[in-house]
Amino acid sequence: MNRHWRSLTVRGDSLKELISRTTMQDSQWALTVEGMKGLQSIAKQKLHRAREMMALARQCYLKVLTGAENVLQIFSDVYSDSDSGSDLEDLE
After folding, report:
1. Domain enclosing residue 54, as ranges
2. pTM for this model (two decimals)
């Protein structure tokens, strides 16, 4: 669990760093203003999904540590209702 949590945290930190870089005026990328806004939008969406995944992981960790049953049911309930099946894939 610790390794999984660290990987989720690193993912979130990397996305926050990317978002902060896209807000700087003198960016190293040769993108138009629209391109920078698009990149920032994509990064914010992925950060939002990463935070959701961290919240879900935290719930599952608590269930596992307290001995609750059907931990995997949480994942199937959350992701069976989502519009895209790629939410988990995007976090890898």
Report:
1. 2-90
2. 0.64
